[in-house]
Design a protein that fits this description.
Layout lengths: L1 H16 L13 E9 L9 E6 L5 E2 L1 E2 L7 E6 L3 E8 L6 E7 L11 E7 L6
Parallel strand pairs: 1-8
Antiparallel strand pairs: 1-5, 2-3, 2-6, 4-5, 6-7
Amino acid sequence: MHTRLALVVLTALVVAGCDDAPIVCTEIAVGSVNVTVHDESGDVVEGVALTYTVDGGDSTACQDVGLEPGATFVCGFEADGEITVTATAVGFDDATDTVTIVKTDDGCHVIGQTMTLTMTPTATP
């Protein structure tokens, strides 16, 4: 009797641990880093350009998403790893920050993060 009960319990545990259902991912593209850029007064920096790298790789341009033209950008879609974003503009020091982006538990998408870069005017000698 004990052997039969142990076999039933063991079988139940094995079956409960098996999940052969395939993971189905949506086809949306999640932005890795949503970036807002402004100067020390909170104003838009004219002519700002943003680039990003993933794990120290090649530099890629971020996309101005137009929510506030010249102020809101998306850097990477579904890119995970250490992402470094750099903002450049004439008359300002470069502004840089780094975040680590990870994927969801099912591996379908990244968990996007937000970043704010504040640009400081270049000091004049």
